[in-house]
Design goal:
This protein is mostly helical. The chain has a domain of 73 residues. Helices cover 55% and strands 10% of the residues. A two-stranded antiparallel ribbon has the order 1-2.
Length: 116
Amino acid sequence: MTEAVTEPETVVEEPEEAPHAGPSLHQPKRWFIAAGEVVAIVLLAIVAVWCWNRGVVRLAYPLEGREALISTRYHGNWLGTAVGAVTLAVILGLDAVRQVVLALRTRPQKAAEADV
């Protein structure tokens, strides 16, 4: 006679529940992060202006009896660095606003329950 082939039973374990971490949005360090980003924005703006001024060079060629011929030379590496610095400053500005809004608007869970 033939034997019945049985597969071993598979035991499926349920994952353990993760412990509640508490309120994660309201953190005092968000103010420090926003302040650091504002300082970085100011520094990036200064770097952007400095790079832009280095990227635009005006040359004057004097001519006898006529006005000087003025030409402008653009250095792409400096202008590109200035544009990159401004772009990074804008992104940091958006994140700084986000950090401040999260620090102001969200209250700890205990404070929110106490108001109810």
